[in-house]
Fold this sequence. Notes:
By secondary structure, this protein is an alpha+beta fold.
Amino acid sequence: MKAVTDHPVHDLIATRWSPYSFADRSVSDEDLRSLFEAARWAASSYNEQPWNYIIAKKEDADEFERLLSCLVDGNQVWAKNVSALALGISSLNFARNNKPNRAAIHDLGLAAGNLVLEATSRGLAVHQMIGILPDKARELYSIPEGYEPMTGIAIGYADDPINLPEELRTRDAARRPRKTPKEFIFRGRWGVPSSLF
């Protein structure tokens, strides 16, 4: 489902989307290594690289179920079908001085952006989720203080949504709405649209 953009963008951006329906098809270890290599090379404040991941492949049933249990029920419904799950975790303080890193969550997002585009370039789909159970993840994986489980990441191959529950099938088939640039790009003061658009 390619996005209809108002201005030209790279094809990887236009074709990236977050399906709910995933095929029963394994993602290779080689592809997973490349996805996380792409995340590794994301920009970060002071080159801190404040991201960490916990990953489980569906073939490792016990680990996959453990990670799946860290998602809210609504996400477990469809995420149980993906090839691999991951948790994105952010270190909240700088390693160099233990002061709060206000860019940490932003930088985790940049790493996720790299991961998503690498996945798209390989014909894979990624669906990121804020709907996780951080306390459960912290307990199950012994995540230390100062690190925050932020997102779930589903990785696999998109599939026909026919087997999804109706609500998810409708969401999966819907056009991806976006705000217009005038709604979020300002000039001079807040709320005044930039003349660029």
